[in-house]
Specification:
The chain is 28% helix and 31% strand. The chain is α/β, with parallel strands linked by helices. Helix 1 links the parallel strand 1 and strand 2. Helix 1 packs across helix 6. The model has no long low-confidence stretch (mean pLDDT 96).
């Protein structure tokens, strides 16, 4: 399996080691490819879009021609996981702030996002969330996290925190408001790997 990690910003190494651990547990061979330029996405079996600043990541992906490649493979059914800023980028619709700044989104998932959902006082925090399909709560690390405020019929809600949707899946697309790569718990990376063909 060739797993591409968009390597513009964010916890690239942490995602790479979480995938390595998850592949070891699942006994699936994996190669991690860090993506900074166009031409690599089409050869990947799965893609991870890490956190960071969604405006920066979105603009650079567009400038580098990575965005159109991701849209194409996403429509072909290749699994894509977006965490935090990655969740924002997967969304079809943003909040007022997103719309006002016209930041580019990939517009793949039928969700609306609130870009800075938890406000300044709660810039970063941890919480135990129940994640559908996992046998015990996941310790979720939120860092200036977004949330999903509306989800279409094809979207399966996987986790909520304080009534806000913080994890969801639409077929081959997985969006998380928190950072599963930061806790040493690889169950969500394993969940993602189970989405591989
Ligand atoms: N709030 C950030 C954004 O708008 C995302 C934060 C994160 O990825 N840790 O891009």
């Amino acid at each position: 399996m060739r797993i591409g990690v968009i390597a513009i910003q964010g916890n690239i190494e942490e995602h790479a080691s979480a995938i390595k651990e998850a592949s070891r547990i699942a006994n699936i061979g994996s190669e991690i490819i860090k993506i900074k330029h166009k031409g690599i996405v089409p050869s990947c079996d799965a893609i991870i879009i890490p956190g960071g600043e969604s405006t920066t990541i979105g603009r650079l992906m567009e400038k580098e021609g990575i965005s159109s490649e991701i849209k194409k493979i996403a429509r072909a059914g290749v699994p894509i996981m977006g965490t935090c800023a990655g969740l924002i980028l997967l969304a079809k619709h943003g909040d007022e702030q997103v719309e006002k700044t016209k930041q580019p989104l990939l517009e793949l998932m039928d969700i609306r996002v609130n870009r800075n959902a938890f406000g300044r006082q709660k810039e970063s925090f941890e919480a135990q969330v129940d994640f559908k399909g996992l046998d015990s709560p996941f310790n979720a690390v939120f860092i200036r996290a977004p949330c999903i405020t509306e989800a279409g019929r094809e979207v399966e809600v996987l986790a909520r925190y304080d009534h806000a949707i913080v994890a969801a899946r639409q077929k081959n697309l997985l969006a998380l408001a928190f950072h599963p790569e930061l806790t040493g718990d690889f169950r969500i990376h394993l969940y993602f790997m189970k989405m591989f063909k």
